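Sat 14:20. Reprocessing the chain from the morning session after the first attempt stalled halfway. Input below, unchanged.
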Amino acid sequence: MKNAARIVIADRSVLAGNLYRILLAPLEAMLLVRRNLDEAVALLSRREVTNLAIFNTNVFCGAFDAIATQFATDEHLAAIAKIFLTSTRHADDAHRACLASLPNTAILPRPFHPDAFTALVRRLLQGGRHA
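Finished this time. Tokens:
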């Protein structure tokens, strides 16, 4: 696992964390799953090489504007490829659009098909275009 991809995941759900581990097991990546945003951002802020960060927007807990600003203005965080798992509710359209405008970002609305998730992760790890 010396050259394994390092993926930081933030999701409040323990069940989802287990699902990510199952879905991403074939990649043999180092998964660092955290249940809150602060812990995930702390991992990213260590400046260790991180190949991908996955955020379920359920970890934002009402601090959306501050978080979006941090991801847009912090050069290190902006450089990391990111997937935001977002709600499909109409009320979240503005948040989804804001996240989509961030650098190195892909948006995947929930619920998503597992194959779509793994395909997006693989594409981003291979340096593919962001969606």
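Strands lie at 6-10, 30-34, 52-56, 82-86, 105-109.
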